[in-house]
Design brief:
mainly alpha, 16 helices, about 325 residues
Amino acid sequence: MTIRESFEQQEKEYLSPYAALSINSKGRLKDEEPCDIRPVFQRDRDRIIHCKSFRRLKDKTQVFLTPEGDHYRTRLTHTLEVSQNARTIAKALRLNEELVEAIALGHDLGHTPFGHAGERALNRVCPLGFEHNVQSVRTVDRLEKGGHGLNLTYEVRDGILNHQTEGTPHTLEGKIVQFSDKIAYIHHDMDDALRAGILEESDVPEEISNVIGRTTGERLDHFIHDIVTNSMGKNDIRMSEPVAEAMRKLRQFMFENVYQNPVAKSEESKAETLMETLYGHFLKKIDDMPEEYRRLIDEGEPRERVVCDYVGAMTDRFAIAVYEDIYIPKSWSV
């Protein structure tokens, strides 16, 4: 028996009957020899951690564009917090930690620079549309490894595609990540807003605080405990209705006071203009893109999609540098 097979046997013996077992995976887009040490979901997690798009998350905006301070979240730290929340829940419910970790680490690989401002800009100008969850799957299927993709399992790809609120993951592990994503961004965006002086803890309405707590730590703890308590022994991942309603109200509060706050979002229109400008430039001048992207067009991919691939994959810093290189006269930038 290989090490991998012994791990697969341990999953059968220990995990919940509702867990997604590695040995029962629906497989990969392309068949390949199994690893003799790692089960398939562990292998997927490792591939994601080592890919270029994962490393780029460190320099992509979460909510605050170019904040003055070292402790504001980036898309990478958001991803790590989603992963930790998801693993905590999965471990408590005896579900597959390696699957939730792989989904969580990969869920935002296709996100644009400048957060949702960049996503809105590309979706507006590209006739094919642009959604970061769809782009994350395209990133792991088509763009990584020089166009060969990471060849991930169905279950991980499904969880990545369906991590947003309107998605319907086909595994409980995918549902855990879906909840964990919302919990993470509500928690850390509140924390960052407090740090920025945009909010005070006392601003949170009493009807919310009375249900889920009066600090970011209390709320995070309450969300996770509520999911574990209400999902234990069930073929579903759920919150109690009072806590789910409090989450909806807190999310609405965040939209009204942070996500649409003119102080927090004062630079977003500039970021959107920059993204639209880069898209228009490379759509006209395909030869200015790297060879790996031009090759996708030669292989029959729509040029609009490939330009989104290139511009959407940029980090904040690289997008600004490319814009300056194209449009700012060199003598002005000395």
